[in-house]
Specification:
heterodimer; A: alpha+beta; elongated; B: alpha+beta; Cyclophilin; 2 domains; 7-stranded mixed beta barrel; 5 helices
Chain lengths: ~240, ~325
């Protein structure tokens, strides 16, 4: 289905304590924006027993407590009762989100060297110079399509096709916190030191996940991100400021 | 803590409301056993307890404490005397509690009146090992750690407590216990019921039949994030590349090698593999009590049935709370 056509919503169970609202559109900024509008309108409804609303690339999961969705007669199971309520609340067509939603978050990045040890190999592999890779990566605004893998880890896209490489065959056991990486048609920042299979091209000195802040992340699905190249000196200065 | 055991962590029923930021739920692998243990000592469902795995810890008790142990039988004892499970126990100050190796099940839960007091991070005290947050500094319990209870609303079972003082025993246990049908833990192979997800129908008919007829063995590579199963591998009709989306506790994923992985407490919030479905919530505790090498079979049930069973379990739990209320003043 073309992204411009209104997408339809369908429901399916995700076990006995969650359900999926799926949007029959291709993943991408528009679908993400539409899911964000949907998530915000559902959150605004304050339906009882909803514990989490989690965006995927083209679906939204609602985690719920089935105990509060039994009605008087018990003729219908909680899933059916919740679906009936959702169908009454939502139009069958997905909302049009547009792509101008959300905040724009700037993330300073020091590319290459010890900060991005795969930058040279990636440039060689794609027949580009290191400067071209940096220019392509920092030229566009990315949409945060989904969070997952680790706290604050966003799948940002779409990544320029010229920078697209598959994940490493063997993941690294330790990717340093703040690493900026690419794989397939995505780019991401590792919010904390963890194992990881993406190609490391740079690093940001800012903290992407902080439990002392509310929300604990710097961006959510539907926000937009721009990478700003900075020098190694600037990296150190910003990092020290953040301590 | 004199000895930490294989993997001892502080857990509650999990971190809710932050999955959209990529934050895993975590919490007890067998939340039922933790909730029952909490109920027995008069705690609410949100209280944190201690999850002990396969080979348990040993610790000294500094102050007179009301506890309950539920879940796997890790052969708990106080001195030379077996510590009775599934019931409230008043422990005397200075007694030493030791857990051994699992005789039945995999994970035992220790609840303490007032709950285990550690800082609440993003609304939960659960240990989130891979992110290094929650619990005790985001890590497993170590030798030398001190676990302190929070303040409990009221002192339950004053009669037992007086008996403890009068007899100078190391502990005094209630004569009654929560009836939990522990014989279900002993079933071999274990029967795990699940609700089919929307990829189930994309499996070829013979693969679906094989999934329901086969016996699976829990791989040694299983952990709090996922239970890896070994058995007859299942192929998808065409290798469907599922679009990454949210997963749940008990989602049964099918990676390209065809060996199912059941996502457990520390699962990531989203996943990109096709799924067979989700384990019924009432059977997650049974699954969580399996250890590497244990065998299981899947049984498909309707969603309505899964939710009805969960409702019955909730009613049984409310009855337990009421009897604790009734016995609490004894």
């Amino acid at each position: 289905m073309a992204e411009s056509d209104a997408a339809h919503l369908s429901f399916s169970p995700l076990g006995d304590r969650a359900l999926l609202i799926e949007c029959d559109a291709a993943p991408g900024p528009r679908t993400t924006a539409c899911l964000r509008v949907l998530a915000e309108s559902l959150a605004g409804q304050r339906l009882p027993g909803i514990t989490d609303i989690v965006p995927g690339l083209r679906s939204l999961a609602l985690h719920y407590d089935p105990e509060v969705w039994w009605n008087g007669s018990g003729a219908h199971a909680p899933y059916e009762n919740l679906i009936a309520r959702l169908q009454a609340l939502l139009a069958p067509q997905a909302p049009q989100g547009g792509t101008g939603l959300g905040r724009v978050v700037e993330i300073p990045v020091t590319y290459g060297g010890e900060y991005g040890m795969d930058l040279h190999a990636l440039a060689r592999d794609r027949g580009l110079t290191v400067e071209e890779v940096i220019a392509l990566h920092s030229a566009v605004e990315y949409t945060v399509l989904m969070l997952g893998f680790a706290p604050g880890f966003g799948y940002l896209g779409p990544l320029d096709e010229r920078l697209s490489v598959p994940r490493r065959a063997t993941p690294r056991t330790r990717v340093p916190q703040g690493s900026v990486a690419v794989a397939d048609r995505y780019t991401a920042v590792y919010p904390m030191t963890s194992p990881g299979g993406w190609h490391l091209i740079g690093r940001t000195p800012i903290k992407l996940f902080d439990t002392q802040r509310d929300p604990p992340v710097r961006f959510a699905a539907g926000d937009r991100v721009r990478f700003v190249p900075v020098s190694a000196q600037e990296f150190t200065r910003v990092r020290d400021e953040w301590r | 803590m004199l000895r930490a055991g294989v993997l001892t962590t502080v857990q509650d029923i999990g971190r809710r409301g932050y999955q959209r930021y990529g934050v895993s739920v975590c919490g007890a692998m067998d939340p039922w056993s933790l909730c029952v243990a909490n109920a027995l000592v008069g705690n609410g469902n949100g209280a944190a307890g201690v999850e002990m795995t396969l080979d348990g810890p040993a610790f000294d008790v500094d102050e007179e404490t009301l506890i309950a142990v539920c879940g796997a039988d890790l052969a708990p004892r106080v001195g030379d005397t077996a510590l009775p499970m599934h019931r409230p126990v008043w422990l005397a100050a200075g007694s030493r509690v030791e857990f051994g190796t699992a005789r039945m099940g995999c994970r035992a839960y220790l609840a303490v009146a007032g709950g285990i007091e550690v800082p609440e991070i993003l609304g939960s005290r659960s240990t989130y090992l891979s992110a290094g947050l929650g619990g005790i500094e985001g890590r497993a319990v170590r030798r030398g750690d001190r676990l302190a209870p929070g303040r409990s609303a009221r002192k339950l079972y004053p009669g037992l407590q007086r008996q403890l003082a009068r007899t100078r025993a190391k502990f005094v246990a209630a004569h009654w216990a929560a009836s939990l049908h522990p014989e279900r833990l002993a079933r071999v192979p274990q029967i795990i019921r699940f609700v089919a997800g929307r990829h189930w129908e994309t499996l070829p008919a013979d693969a679906r039949a094989r999934c329901l007829a086969s016996e699976y063995r829990l791989s040694a590579a299983s952990d709090r994030m996922g239970y890896r199963l070994e058995g007859a591998p299942l192929e998808l009709a065409a290798h469907a590349d599922a679009v990454p989306e949210a997963v749940a506790f008990g989602t049964i994923q099918l990676p390209p090698d065809g060996n199912p992985i059941v996502l457990m407490a520390d699962r990531q919030v989203t996943g990109g593999y096709p799924r067979l479905g989700e384990v019924a919530s009432v059977d997650l505790p049974l699954l969580a009590q399996l250890k590497p090498g244990d065998r299981l079979r899947f049984e498909k049930i309707a969603l309505t049935e899964a939710q009805r069973l969960l409702h019955l379990q909730e009613q049984a739990f409310q009855q337990l709370r009421e009897s604790v209320q009734a016995h609490g003043t004894e």
